[in-house]
Amino acid sequence: MKRQHWNTSLVFCTLCVLGAVLLAGLVAGCVTLTDYDVEDSQEETFTLPFVQNLEGFDILFVVDPSSSTADLLDGVGEMAPGMIGSLDYALLNAQVSAPQLHIGVITPDLGTGEHQIQDCTADGDRGELQTITGAGCPDLDGKYIVVVDNEVQNMVGVYDVATAVQCLIDGQMERAAGCRFEQPLAAVAKAVDGGRTPNNAGFIRSNAGLAVVLMTDQDDCSAPTNGLFDPDAQSLGAANTFRCFEWGVTCDEGARTPGSKNACRPRTADEGGLLYEPTQLAEMIFAHKSQSSVVFATVAQPADPVVVALNNLGEPYVQSSCGGDGVPGVRLGAFLELFDDFGLDDSICEPQLPDLLFSISERMASQAVSRCMPKTPADADKDTPGLQVRCTAWDVQNLGEIHEVRSDDILSCAQTQDELPCWRITEDRVCTSDYKMEVLRDTQPADGSIVEATCLVLLE
Question: What angle do CA 62, 361, 128 make, to 5 degrees?
Fold first, then answer.
């Protein structure tokens, strides 16, 4: 599983007085910009807040309604309030006037088109938000749960987030098992595209953060056409989900030969692949949501080991990578890599869901306050290729007071060779300066800490 670390957002001095930690490790801060005698740079002190004007957060659960995920999904509701409450609090501290959360559920079932496969329909659930609630639950008024000030607004008689989320998820788990050819990534791409899925209108907001939480024991089988599902296409092998592996993944060894596989990765179209490449699916999502505003998390099978065996009919199948049913999430793992620190994963065999939901909420909360630099960083060494940024950061308690306590210098991740804590500056088109600064951590700072940074910036 990826190492999860705290992503500390920087804000200006007007937020410092709040003295509130949004989440463990997500803190307010002040930025001082200093001249280092580099041409076209200047010293300035900024005291204006630079809060992103987020409307709220949209949270999309992708639910695989199969028996192997039932125990996991049964506990999501009781863990959700901590995550949701943290986000609500983060919005309040970010001075958003009307904090609001949207929570929706879709399935990975997009059907098999004209091909008749058991338990599969032509279009499946089409990436549309599912509104059926579980037995004994009230109906949902609308297509998704609306939460304002930590209270559910549109489920009759239900105000707590835990009950509402679990009711909506239970409604999917009580349905008949969906199509075995699961296409979760393509389903997400459809769900966020209002043009293709008008039924979801209003759920995805252009000025809101988005978190996708995908829970499945299968790998992604998102296909651009339905040809892969044709049971009469004998050249594709038996009409079962091994086709998803053979035509969507490539390894050093042949797919159909029993045994361990090495260096497995998504199969490209140039290599004869019949599934979408992960980059294509990511681009579909980013066409409707800025990459900097999306957190993507999976609870799935680890991507390795990958072992092919034969069933009692002599047909190849991929064994589970961690016990139970399911197959290794090779394609899902490669997809998450495209999200850097905003792509999180957990093993479905030994899930640590509270930790995962905390990490999701931490990443999302970091979107509530801008990490944007107020000025474009100057190039401190024009003789070296690329932008050479010069900054220093500190954790500070009681800033400006007689009992001020300042940490040792926090250096750039390049200087520390990614040893944490460290800071990095990256491009972000959301920022007017086109750059943001983040402090990465593996332990929490002291309670009440803020971050102060000194950077070299360009003249206006």
Answer: 25
Q: Report residue 350 as tokens.
A: 């030994």
DSSP 269-289: GGGT--S--HHHHHHHHHTTS
β-partners of residue 135 are none
- The distance of Cα 360 from the centroid of its chain, to the nearest Å, equals 7
DSSP 342: G
pLDDT tens sequence across 365-417: 665 554 677 788 888 888 889 889 888 888 888 877 888 898 899 899 999 99
DSSP state of 148: E
What is this structure's pTM?
0.71
User: How would you classify residue 16: left for phi > 0, otherwise alpha for psi between -120 and 50, otherwise beta?
Assistant: alpha
φ, ψ (nearest 5 deg) of residue 308: -100, 135
Closest CA to 244 of 351, 105, 110, 337: 110
Q: How far apart are CA 334 and CA 417, in angstroms?
A: 24
Q: How far, CA to CA in Å, does 458 sit from each of 37, 294, 390? A: 11, 29, 12
Secondary structure of 439-455 in HEC code, one letter for each residue: EEECCCCCCCCEEEEEE
CA angle (342, 348, 354) in 5-degree steps: 60
Count CB neighbours of 181 within 10 A.
Answer: 27
Q: Are 97 and 187 in contact (CB under 8 A)?
A: no
Phi, then psi, of 365 in degrees rounded to 5: -65, -30
Domain-by-domain residue ranges, the chain?
1-51+385-460, 56-365
**DSSP string computed for 191-236:** HT-TTT-GGGTTTS-TTSEEEEEEE-SS-----SSSGGG-TT-GGG
How would you label 210-240 residue by residue, b for 16+ Cβ within 10 Å and e otherwise?
Answer: bbbbbbbbbbbbbbeeeebbbeeeeebbebb
* pLDDT tens figures, 173-230: 887 677 899 999 999 999 999 999 999 999 998 778 888 999 888 999 999 999 999 9
105-142: per-residue pLDDT in tens? 999 999 999 999 988 999 999 999 999 999 999 999 99
Q: Specify burial of residue 331 (Cβ count, 10 A radius: 0-12, 13-18, 19+).
A: buried
Amino acid making up residue 373:
M
What pLDDT was estimated at residue 51? 38
Residue length, the chain? 460
